[in-house]
Amino acid sequence: MQTPPRVLTVAGSDSGGGAGIQADLKTMLALGVHGMSVLTAVTAQNSTGVQGAWELPVEAVRAQYRSVVDDIGVQAVKTGMLATAELVEAVAELLTATDAPVVVDPVGVSKHGDPLLAQSALASVRTRLLPAATVATPNLDEVAQLTGVEVAGEEDLREAAAAVLGLGPRWALIKGGHLEGEAVDLLTDGSEEHWLRAPRLDNRHTHGTGCTLASAVAAGLATGLDVPEAVRRAKDYVTGAIAAGFALGSGIGPVDHAWRQR
Predict the structure, then answer these.
(1) Domain spans of the chain?
(2) Does the annotation mark 175 as catalytic?
(3) Conformational region of residue 240, where left means phi above 0, alpha means psi within -120 to 50, and beta covers everything else
(4) Catalytic residue at 209?
(5) Residue limits of the Pyridoxamine kinase/Phosphomethylpyrimidine kinase domain (predicted)?
(6) Active-site choice (26, 27, 211, 220)
């Protein structure tokens, strides 16, 4: 049997299964690629928030990465929660030595507003991690955290994208999901623009959207799609997953990664 494309996620664990490594691997399976993982942190997390987080030692993260890449190989890498400056620096070093497209989801806070990145790590994200990215996928809170640009409406997305591109990624995907009206995102490399629009869905169960989108983009790149097409298909997949999001626990439930299979 033919080996499927291989995608590596470097991220934290969500014990509730809605985001993080768990969401990444579910997305990759749903989109037909083989998902592999480097665990950076463990969280105690459920539908109401993050009750605790513990990062792994740098040597453990580096060993996981080398174990996978040196033997199995990768066609794309996706990063999520990296937690500390030391982990950001180590992962950035590993990425620059890997010949594969990289999707960076610069995770700063959880869906519930819990911090997942130390303030001391922001400089490393700006100067080391984002320059290694083929595509960076910040939400509006992460844009403000990294660049200082506040997005109040769709007209501000170009400024946000320019500020993110100034930090070094080849493409910036600015996610406008927190704006009023339709869900609009802007993908640009500074010379061409792609506006991606979808209706805003009346479903509060949206835990894991950022992880899912970034992983879907990485899956597309691993199969040989160019960046605009990979992002377009990822947006379609996430829109369907949000529409099918379901209640879990007493708080915000997850998107449904298996909505197409159902």
Answers:
(1) 6-243
(2) yes
(3) alpha
(4) yes
(5) 14-256
(6) 211
